[in-house]
Amino acid sequence: MLMRTDPFRELDRFAQQFFGNTPATWSRPAAMPMDAFRDGDQFVVCFDLPGVSPDAIELDVERNVLTVKAERRPYGGDQVEMQVSERPFGAFSRQLFLGDTLDTDHIDASYDAGVLTVRIPIAEKAKPRRIAIGGGEREPEQIDA
Fold first, then answer.
1. What is the pLDDT of residues 42-53, one digit of tens each?
2. What sign does the dihedral 13-14-18-22 (CA atoms) show?
3. Are 69 and 56 in contact (CB under 8 A)?
4. How far is CA 55 from CA 59, 87, 145, in A?
5. All domains of the chain, ordered by start, with CATH?
6. What is the per-residue pLDDT for 24?
7. 3-state SS, residue 52
8. Cβ-contact 52, 114 below 8 angstroms
9. CA end-to-end span of the chain, whole Å?
10. Domain SHSP, which positions (predicted)?
11. Nearby residues of 99 by Cβ (< 8 Å), 6 or more positions away
């Protein structure tokens, strides 16, 4: 259903934990945590985007590639003097390669409590179906007892 696309994500996460949030990592979009699972006849992907305004989220699909972009903006204003800044801000991006078994024409998305939930129906051709077994043209033999 879903193919992981970023083999260097764990390496980036380790480097960020080890070196901290340095200026070198600010220019690269950060990965957003996600869960992906099948729920009946649909595939569901949930992205954690706390503190992101719904109007700062873009969701696109092109040729079975789902792209999620979001931006968490820093608190602004002349009077703001940051004391502690541990939450990352800036651009976040994630791409997922979707299998051919998903119906990308009917994707539904909702955003609630900082979680973007994307629901993708399973294509009809990929759903399990029962195959009728036809009988031969011979009549069954009767056994006399």
1. 999 999 998 899
2. negative
3. no
4. 11, 20, 80
5. 2-17+29-72+87-126 (2.60.40.790)
6. 46
7. coil
8. yes
9. 56
10. 25-136
11. 1, 2, 3, 64
Residue 5: C-alpha distances to residues 10, 31, 80, 98, 103 (Å): 12, 12, 39, 10, 20
Per-residue tokens: 76? 């602004």
Q: How much of the chain exceeds pLDDT 70, in percent? A: 70
> pLDDT tens digits, residue range 32-41?
899 999 999 9
Residue 75 tokens, joined = 């608190």
Give dist(CA 131, CA 135) in Å, integer.
13
Band of the pLDDT at 77, cuts 50, 70, 90?
confident
In angstroms, rounded to a whole number, what is the distance separating the alpha carbons of residues 98 and 1?
A: 6
* Closest-CA residue to 98 (of 117, 122, 116, 115): 122
Whole-number Å distance between alpha carbons of 129 and 133 = 13
